[in-house]
Amino acid sequence: MRKKPNLPARLERCKGMILEDPTAYCGKWLSTFGGKELHLEIGAGKGKFLVETAKENSDIFFVGIEREEGALVIAAEKAIAEDVQNIRFLDVDAVNLPTFFADGELDRIYLNFSDPWPKKKQWKRRLTYRTFLDLYWNALCENGVIFQKTDNMRLFEFSLNEFAAVGYLLKNITFDLHATDLPNIMTEYETRFVEQGMPIYRTEAYKQKTKLI
């Protein structure tokens, strides 16, 4: 993204929406912020999906991770402008997930249009590579679920294999989300892809009692 004008000042104005030390809330997100469930989106982008989802589910607390500051500030400003209280954003790396969320603390994780890292030597950086899936497994509660959406067929097929190898139970697999009646809130990227006639791939991966690897 292009560097946003007045970015430091804008980030400062969003200080309450972007948490500086998320490790302080590890194991006590819901006791601190309230809510019956804790949901996380990794790669929140400009916040369209997470803000709209939070507005429709006021009894759930949402956390969005976004490393690109230009997108992060737009997401935070959107939440503030729409007075969405049950959401906070983090500028952190997902590899450090165990320092932000205790074992079993998350009910749901969203992976929306993650970077496909197309070269084979980059696959370990994919958010559905098994080392990441292992982190999610620990952070998710029993029967916790990962929702994945992508426009990249190769990433999707790779992800289905990784989910199965680790031991997640796959449900509602579709290779054309918008041809189904599954409930869906679109992201910024998704809106653009649908306008171009591109199919959207989606699945739900549920944590089971036994991890395979």
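That was protein one. Protein two is written in the same sequence-then-structure order:
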Amino acid sequence: MDAFQNGLIDLRRSFHRDPEIGFDELRTKAKVAHRLRGIDIEVHEGIGVVGVLQSGGGNRTIGLRADMDALPIQEISSHDYVSQNAGVMHACGHDGHMTMLLGAAELLAKDPDFDGKIVFIFQPNEEHGLGAQAMINEGLLEQFPMDEVYAIHNLPGAPLGEVSTRAGQICASESLFEIEIMGQGGHASMPQVGVDAITVGAEMVLALQTIVSRKLAPGAGAVVSVTEFQTDGQRNVLPGTAVLKGDVRARLPQDRADVERFMRQIVDGIATAHGVQATMSFKTEFIETLNASGPTDAVVQAAANAGLTAIGDRPPMSFSEDFAHFCAAVPGCFLLLGNGTEPPFCQPLHAADYDFNDALLPIGAAFWAQLVKDRLPKRKNT
């Protein structure tokens, strides 16, 4: 193992020991900024951290994004760099994402074999879908106009270093809904006197499942899940109110809009049939991540140039990613990078015993550097 790889491992494990939740990544941001300044990269600090590296006189700019936040999970691993912050853990690999991008910055600063500008984006609060839009609202894209933007996420269970992506939809949207039912509670022995909110809610739960099975085209990939059912009922008291909460995933904006429309029809219809009032809120936390064809082709080519296995037509992922906001504003590509097939590197994302694979760090850094050189090639002297 060379000094560069050892340095990346030490850095990644220092991030892992000190995880921070979204918008509170203060120590993480300071460490990222310090590292960038140490390799003579221009640094801008705001909601996130932005590094800028220019080489030559080229006028093209590409953005490379890494997420910084951790999750409210108590780590159960036993390695010597386990989280020192109780109840907080890098269970999604953002510690590795930051380290790979910082490694790429170091490689490119030492050997600026490109012509143009790189914007290194270190983004807070990806897990709640708020960080990308916050950076955009802060003026990131006006201050640092980009021609293309890219992001990596590790993929547990995939072979180490395997690159996979696709043009078009790569990650699903996530919308949260809440339905409140206002009936008439009463004595459990006399249900005919009131309107039992739990019965109305149960009917809604079942009817909502017909949206995907009967109202959307087969293979649409949408999911409607009721995840909470709360009432004010007791052992012998029929509930007068009930609240249903849940999660909707969709691959396409139109499917998301259709799901919301069908949900409102079902809620209003069942409430009317039972003579009760019901209200529904539907809030999209993550929009769909849509990859542009040009940047996607560039990722596949860069992977091949870097000696990595590349899959350019992988199936869409069911999880959501707030990199979607960058892709909606700038042509971009979100790609997956295999984290390995052995435990703990194949453990699911967000698992309490997941860990990022240190062997992936130099691979990811080298891939980023290759992509930059491919997309910002030096002009040949004539």
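The radius of gyration is 24 Å. Keep this in mind for the problem set.
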